[in-house]
Amino acid sequence: MRLSWCVINLAMDEYNIIIFLQLIQAVRRLYQPPGAHLSLHQVVELNRRLLKGYDQFKDKPMVQKLSGDVLKYNRLLQSLGVRDHQVFLSQNFFLQ
After folding, report:
1. What is the rounded distance in angstroms from the CA atom of residue 53 to the CA atom of residue 34?
2. What is the model's pLDDT at position 15?
3. Which end of the chain is less enclosed by CB atoms within 10 A, N or C?
4. 84: which residues sit within 8 A by CB, 6+ positions away?
5. Are 10 and 55 spatial neighbours (Cβ–Cβ below 8 Å)?
6. Grouped pLDDT means (10 residues each) for the chain, 96 residues
């Protein structure tokens, strides 16, 4: 997967690259339906498309708001010590 990140040249410092990659990963996790398992090829292709789309529309207010919301969601999960897939599992636990 590292090769797929290198295909798109982005002028960013290391901190922004880390934040950007976290954003792409979080969006992919939120986009993927619960219980769906993507192949490595599908993950790489989805990442590539998300990167390309973000690069094209990053200045749009809706994309900036979505980016901010996803990063807040990521920070909240980190502060709680919870991973994204555990949120779905805990919802199922409390619904039973």
Report:
1. 23
2. 67
3. C
4. 26, 29, 30, 77
5. yes
6. 50 68 81 81 88 87 87 86 72 49
Residue 95: per-residue pLDDT: 47
With contact defined as beta carbons under 8 Å apart, do 23 and 67 qualify? yes
Q: Which residues contact 28 (CB under 8 A, 6 or more apart)?
A: 43, 46, 47, 50
Give the per-residue pLDDT at 91: 52
Which structural domain, as residue segments, surrounds residue 22? 2-95
Task: In whole angstroms, give the CA distance from residue 62 to residue 35.
Answer: 28
- CB within 8 Å of 21: residues ≥ 6 apart: 5
| Number of domains composing the chain | 1
